Amino acid sequence: MRSHYCGDLRKEHIGEDITLCGWVHRRRDHGGVIFLDVRDREGLAQVVFDPDREESFALADSCRNEFVVEIKGTVRNRPEGTVNPEMPTGEIEVLGKELVILNKAETPPFQLDEHQNVGEEVRLRHRYIDLRRPEMQEKMRFRSKVTNAIRNYLDDNGFLDIETPILNRATPEGARDYLVPSRVHEGQFFALPQSPQLFKQLLMVSGFDRYYQIAKCFRDEDLRADRQPEFTQIDIETSFMDEEGIMALTENMIRKLFLEMKDVDLGDFPRMPYSEAMQRYGSDKPDLRYPMELVDVADLMAEIEFKVFAGPANDPKSRVTALKVPGGAQLTRKNIDDYTKFVSIYGAKGLAWIKVNEIENGVNGLQSPIIKFLGDDVTMAIMERLGAENGDIVFFGADKAKIVSEALGALRIKVGEDLNMAQCEWAPLWVVDFPMFEETDAGLTALHHPFTAPSCTADELKANPLEALSRAYDMVLNGCELGGGSVRIHDQEMQAKVLEILGISDEEAEDKFGFLLNALQFGAPPHGGLAFGLDRLIMLMTGTESIREVIAFPKTQSASCMMTEAPGEVSAAQLRELNIKLRKTP
Ligand code: ASP
């Protein structure tokens, strides 16, 4: 129907007869002439109807916002003084000659004006309208371009796009599975994939050598702010490549993507061992845009009377650390109270601090409720270790290591943001040398997943599992994990050993992924890969605050869809067919 997109019209089209199709963005009656701003996915064009053409004029007059129209007309210069330099089509307008109303529209639940502040609930309930807004159109278009660039890169590098099944067997991969009842197999369930992990490994056993898939994954987790129950991964697996090869290939992919899409050169990504990241930044995904670091001071506090510090200082599972914030002495009591509340989210019981006013006067130049407990010598020794200068504030954390690292690690970023301390716009890095296992209340669990290869022998692993490192790597950008992966175990015995250490019995292993253990015995090549979170990547690249903004039809934080109202009840007949009887919660 259309000859041009509205948003594509420019000076060079002047004099052309054209046909536009789109939505009425706005109708203005300027005393005798009707202006319609017509919108399509490429932008807006101004169409003018004058009363000479009675029929089309009357139709234009009857148009309301969001009517769908087809317009024939001629492109012409805007009259002197009415050029709009803010609009890409602002130099021209269309003289409307024929107008067909293709469909009418009710008054939309909110204006599509980008300056309107509309509640997210309303937007999500009417997402099809929300997606008409230029900024949402732009995000979806950006996302499409990113996936296209990634496909091209992987295709150029010999990767094959292979689909893996959605209806699977439940596997222990960390999060809770979404289950689908089987009608044909009474009492049995499929699980939706948390990731295509095992299938991509099997594809390597099959000899495909380089696989990728832009794959939907499903995890039934209690949702935190930035999670979706279904999300998209760029899933990659290769054979006969070690971690160096895989990291180089994928780093290059992301670097190229940023150059192409944003004209940003991320440079070479530095590498940091996991232990160093935890030590210096309290996080396995450090945000290196902020220069501040955590400095451990347990050794200086070991002898003091004050239990709050001395306790953790003498406990090997605890940590006592300090965070020096340059310029932080300006923080008010209220600011500090807010930060205290903030760290309590991570389990910290308080937030001790020292302000540095006149360091040349020793402890007399410091201001803090805790100096009297630390004693002058210890206080000054801490100041010296931190290189404290006038105008600084020092925050302290003393508790179980996990709590301290998480709390002060998060505080570091929060204060950095609040005080505008970012030193660059983009800070990528690889975090490497992760431990194989971590200790939880339920025993040892795999830090990455149970198919990750250790960097030691099976015997060493067995002898000292908590000391063992894995061949896993995470790509981190601005404090977000963009992607993670590992070299996998391709040796059946090693795989059996890891499962044994994880406390998974032979029967359970056989039951849950006997197929993988079998496959490893039929000529599995050395292989490894990684997966990027596509939604998160787009979010970062577009500078968007919420992951929901870059997904066309996202779920809410309570894992439901405002528009379709999924999940919903099903009929008794459907349940009967599935042999499912609901137990009503009392
Ligand atoms: N399957 C892993 C994940 O979803 C990524 C990988 O190891 O390739 O996190």
TrEMBL record:
Annotated Aminoacyl-transfer RNA synthetases class-II family profile domain ranges read 140-554
- Which domain of life does this protein belong to? Bacteria
Which residues does the annotation list for site: Important for tRNA non-discrimination?
30, 81
Provide the binding site for ATP: 219-221, 228, 481, 533-536
Q: Does the keyword Heme apply?
A: no
What the entry lists under InterPro entries is as follows: Aa-tRNA-synt_II, aa-tRNA-synth_II, aa-tRNA-synth_II/BPL/LPL, Asp-tRNA-ligase_1, Asp-tRNA-ligase_1_N, Asp/Asn-tRNA-synth_IIb, AspRS_core, GAD-like_sf
Catalytic reactions of this protein: tRNA(Asx) + L-aspartate + ATP = L-aspartyl-tRNA(Asx) + AMP + diphosphate
User: Where L-aspartate is bound, by residue?
Assistant: 173, 219, 448, 488
Compartment list: Cytoplasm
Look up the EC number in the record and give it. Answer: 6.1.1.23
**Stretch list, region Aspartate:** 197-200
GO annotation, cellular component aspect: cytoplasm
Q: How does it associate, per the subunit comment?
A: Homodimer.
Family that this chain belongs to: Belongs to the class-II aminoacyl-tRNA synthetase family. Type 1 subfamily.
What is the recorded name of this protein?
A: Aspartate--tRNA(Asp/Asn) ligase
Identify the species of origin.
Answer: Neptuniibacter caesariensis
